[in-house]
Write a structure and sequence with these properties.
Layout: H1 2-34, H2 40-55, E1 62-64, E2 73-78, E3 96-99, E4 104-108, H3 109-118, E5 123-125, E6 140-142, H4 145-168, E7 173-175, H5 178-182, E8 184-186, H6 187-190, H7 194-206, H8 213-232, H9 258-261, E9 265-267, H10 268-280, H11 291-301
Parallel strand pairs: 1-2, 2-4
Antiparallel strand pairs: 3-4, 3-7, 5-6, 8-9
Helix pairs in contact: 2-4, 3-4, 4-7, 4-8, 7-10, 8-10, 10-11
The protein binds zinc ion.
């Protein structure tokens, strides 16, 4: 009996310690964000996106890196690359997360930048105006600062609007971390998941003509194409031209969806990106040229149509 009670006591103590450290590390993360540990340009993008989102949340008070609002949504944005002493809670590094318990919305700018640079969306071929032999890799140069800000804005809008979707749907937590986002999942497993429900709020921005939508859906088309390129030319640097992908405006040719038919698993972001495009077709005439390829991919992936 005593032995049992002491085991229970030890277990409770361990739980208490871990809860304490968890809470403590969240508070450390908030403090880190409140100190403005983020690049001014990144902060500018996130501020704009959050203000836009807040405009669509009547009745919800929002603050960013400032004093907590009880009952409101508290955004803490930071850059984990500036955290030299490990103050950010481990689970929040390269993550954007909603945690309902404290009505916190944490977002690490490094997640946004890493996604952009890992897809090589931040560079373009630099041929110096001349021809370049097709058998040699192109030299590349960084996109302009304005273009980079545009990509950051589009990616942050998707990530943050998705997390706000979790808040609106009553979910306890939502995470947009690298792990889950890049994880390969079968489209069937994602069908009824709350991840797709959370993306409904992203569509609000897609479908707002005066809003930030054009940048978001162009970005989403860009990442779908990058993924097709990665599949067709798996050995090239994504900044390079893939000979199997014709230069085009739009989504790569429908026949390329053949590549999707036999592959059961795809990165979660790809499934969600395709579905977002599909759901916004009807309200966007500009997306009409993409209808056929998007519908082909939807069919191949056996994605839900609603
Ligand atoms: Zn989510």
């Amino acid at each position: 009996m005593w032995r049992f009670l002491s085991l229970v006591g030890i277990a409770l103590l361990l739980i208490g310690i871990s809860v304490y450290f968890h809470i403590d590390s969240l508070e450390q993360t908030r403090a880190f964000a409140r100190q403005g540990q983020i690049d001014a340009q990144e902060l500018d993008v996130l501020h704009n996106v959050i203000s836009q989102i807040a405009g669509s949340l009547p009745g919800t008070n929002v603050q960013i890196n400032s004093d907590r609002i009880e009952g409101g949504l508290n955004f803490y944005v930071f850059d984990s690359r500036l955290d030299k002493s490990g103050r950010i809670a481990k689970q929040l590094v390269r993550n954007c997360a909603f945690i309902r318990r404290n009505m916190d919305m944490f977002c690490d700018a490094a997640l946004v930048d890493d996604f952009i640079s890992s897809r090589r969306l931040d560079v373009v071929p630099d041929l110096g105006g001349g021809d370049w032999p097709t058998d040699k890799p192109y030299p590349t140069k960084p996109i302009s600062p304005t273009e980079l800000q545009g990509l950051r804005r589009a990616m942050s809008s998707w990530v943050l609007a998705h997390e706000v979707g979790h808040y609106l749907n009553g979910d306890a937590e939502g995470h947009f971390d690298e792990g889950t986002f890049l994880d390969k999942v079968s489209s069937a497993t994602l069908l009824q998941q709350r991840e797709l429900a959370a993306d409904q709020f992203v569509l609000k921005f897609f479908n707002e003509p005066a809003g930030i939508d054009i940048g978001i859906y162009q970005f989403i088309i860009q990442i779908v194409n990058t993924e097709i390129k990665a599949k067709l030319c798996p050995d090239i640097d994504l900044a390079q031209v893939c000979s199997k992908v014709p230069s085009f405006v739009g989504i790569s040719n429908p026949y390329q969806t053949l590549f999707y038919q036999n592959a059961m698993l795809h990165p979660e972001y790809l499934i969600r990106a395709i579905r977002l495009l599909y759901l916004s077709m009807d309200s966007h005439r500009e997306l009409e040229p993409f209808r056929v390829p998007v519908e082909n991919i939807i069919n191949d992936l056996k994605l839900s149509r609603n």
